[in-house]
């Protein structure tokens, strides 16, 4: 076997080195470009002195998107590819070269990683073109949704600053209602609203083509009354806030928000959902409670071929929905954060879906109840525990390609109505338990412990002044 370590670069040539299966480097580190002749030369160097059938392995980090063309070329030429976690590479590099880092060192470390810890590596299986397209579309959709949230919060913050309240309180409807959009474009300056008055604003509103979409005009009087109070706070004109510039800013953000919402709808209806139904016509993933079309598309595209995980334990480790562990002798740390492994979208939708699933599935509800009541976990920790079991179910449904059966903790089949009744009777977390484990109570316990520790230290200083002087 020949092992090739490649340290990928984004703007320059990659660095590669060839090693045999005993850990002996056969070539110096050399530059390789992402061009067919360069990569063909790399494979030729790797096969020097051995038969053409000698298996080749490539180990590299997923640097940007530079890994994809190299991976495709290698797979097409029968080379096994391993994409390894950057943290694993950093850990091994610190072992070999604690105070040095370079592309040449990283290339050698990547090759060594295959010999040092082969059980930690999993051969890369690229999905089909449609599966990869679905994965990219899910990432785009998530980015668009995140940007929508950011812009929404920015517009709400500007509205509260300029008008001393949310616009919903004035009867303008939601953030992008016709009246709210029109007011931001024409009457966002409180002084201008006061000067125009109710009748002038009503005339301008009725003259617009948006007035047909709003039956009520009660918001106009509320807007003028609020504008008078705002002017009393800011003054007319305000010497510190340029409301015309503020209006231009909020109109621009409003325009972006409208475009992003249109992009979101397009991605969902015309890209993500059609690709998902094409790749998963049975729709069995949606038989899992809490899993909808969008999250099912994420699970399907990122899992790829679920049979690449021999066990559920390996799948859990890949997903990253497992907490870090720290144990020594008879002590073990509790309440650690989940690991940074795995795709962020898998962790995000596993958590969101688990929050819903625990309300309908008695088996998952029992896990949540046990974590909250018997193990003393807070809500987020308990939902994360449920999420790992939900991912187990996703994995089994994909492997066996069958719908999910709703069952009791003893395996008895259940109807949805009976399941909800069982959850209400057996697995409802008492309010005192929630209060005991909520964030405010935990913060108070931490502060009390810190105060007791400080008091104890002060008493020790008072009782032993010679220790203080020493």
Describe the structure.
The chain has 470 residues and is α/β, with parallel strands linked by helices. The protein has 4 domains: 2-120, YqgF/RNase H-like domain (Nucleotidyltransferase, domain 5, 2-Layer Sandwich), CATH 3.30.420; 137-267, Helix Hairpins (Orthogonal Bundle); 284-437, no CATH class; 441-469. Helix content is 59%, strand content 6%. The chain has helices at residues 36-46, 67-76, 86-96, 103-116, 129-163, 178-186, 190-207, 218-234, 243-279, 293-303, 312-319, 344-357, 362-374, 379-400, 416-426, 431-437, 439-463, 465-469; strands spanning 2-7, 14-20, 30-32, 56-60, 80-83, 327-328, 331-332. The strands form 2 sheets. A 5-stranded mixed beta sheet has the order 3-2-1-4-5. The protein has a two-stranded antiparallel ribbon with strand order 6-7. Helix 10 packs across helix 12 and helix 11 packs across helix 14 (379-400). It is globular.
Short description:
The chain has 470 residues and is an alpha/beta fold. It is 59% helix and 6% strand. The chain starts with a strand and ends with a helix.
């Amino acid at each position: 076997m020949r092992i090739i370590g490649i340290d990928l670069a984004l703007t320059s040539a990659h660095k590669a080195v060839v090693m045999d299966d005993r850990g002996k480097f056969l070539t110096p580190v050399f530059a390789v470009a992402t061009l067919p002749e360069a990569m063909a030369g790399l494979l030729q160097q790797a096969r020097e002195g051995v038969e053409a059938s000698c298996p080749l392995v490539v180990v590299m980090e997923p640097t940007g998107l530079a890994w994809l063309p190299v991976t495709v070329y290698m797979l097409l030429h029968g080379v096994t590819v391993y994409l390894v976690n950057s943290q694993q590479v950093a850990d091994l590099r610190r072992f070999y070269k604690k105070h040095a880092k370079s592309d040449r060192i990283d290339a050698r470390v990547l090759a060594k990683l295959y010999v040092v810890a082969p059980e930690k590596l999993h051969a890369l299986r690229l999905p089909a073109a449609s599966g990869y397209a679905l994965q990219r579309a899910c990432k785009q959709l998530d980015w668009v949704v995140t940007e929508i949230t950011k812009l929404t919060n920015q517009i709400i913050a500007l509205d509260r600053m300029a008008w001393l309240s949310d616009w919903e309180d004035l009867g303008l409807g939601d953030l992008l209602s016709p009246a709210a959009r029109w007011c931001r474009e024409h009457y966002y300056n409180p002084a201008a609203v006061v000067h125009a008055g109710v009748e002038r604003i009503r005339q301008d509103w009725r003259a617009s083509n948006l007035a047909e979409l709003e039956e009520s005009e009660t918001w106009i009087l509320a807007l003028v009354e609020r504008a008078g109070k705002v002017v009393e706070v800011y003054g007319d004109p305000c010497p510190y806030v340029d409301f015309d510039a503020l209006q231009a800013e909020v109109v621009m953000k409003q325009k972006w928000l409208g475009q992003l919402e249109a992009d979101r709808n397009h991605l969902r209806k015309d890209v993500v959902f059609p690709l998902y139904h094409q790749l998963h016509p049975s729709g069995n993933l949606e038989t899992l409670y809490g899993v909808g079309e969008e999250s099912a598309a994420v699970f399907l595209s990122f899992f790829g071929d679920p049979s690449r995980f021999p066990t559920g334990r390996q799948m859990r480790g890949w997903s990253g929905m497992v907490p870090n562990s720290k144990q020594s002798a008879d002590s073990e740390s509790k309440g650690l954060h989940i690991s940074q492994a795995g795709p962020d979208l898998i962790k995000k939708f596993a958590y969101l879906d688990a929050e819903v699933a625990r309300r309908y599935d008695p088996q998952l509800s029992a896990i949540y109840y046990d974590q909250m009541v018997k193990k003393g976990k807070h809500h987020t920790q308990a939902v994360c525990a449920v999420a790992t079991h939900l991912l187990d179910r996703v994995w089994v449904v994909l492997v066996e390609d069958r719908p999910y059966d709703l069952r009791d903790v003893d395996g008895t089949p259940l109807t949805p109505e009976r399941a909800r009744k069982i959850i209400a009777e057996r697995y409802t977390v008492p309010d005192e338990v929630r209060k005991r484990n909520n964030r405010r109570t935990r913060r108070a316990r931490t502060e009390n412990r810190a105060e007791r520790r400080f008091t104890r230290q002060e008493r020790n200083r008072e009782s032993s002044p010679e220790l203080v002087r020493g």
